[in-house]
Amino acid sequence: QDGAPSHMAAKNQKFCKDNMAHFWPKNFWPPSSPDLNPLDFFWWGAIESKTNRTPHLNLDSLKATIIKEWDNYPEKHIINACKRFRPRLEA
């Protein structure tokens, strides 16, 4: 969550709470920060550089490429990024 009004709307918060097993409500999640959000600031940047190498003619093509890159992304890179998450919270 990044504090955008669309993400903080009561209706969206309720939907997430009702449908996600490990949902963190808006008052629990820290503000958006490169140090606290490895998937937004690390993973998306790495994937974007791969998915944008060639133009996509439609949304389905882009989605398929994102899924392919996620499936092929080295698991150790994701694990390492996530391991650095807790120390940043505790700093």
UniProtKB/TrEMBL annotation:
Cross-referenced InterPro entries: RNaseH_sf
Source taxon at top rank: Eukaryota
Protein name in the entry: Transposable element Tc3 transposase
Lineage: Eukaryota, Metazoa, Ecdysozoa, Arthropoda, Crustacea
GO molecular function: nucleic acid binding
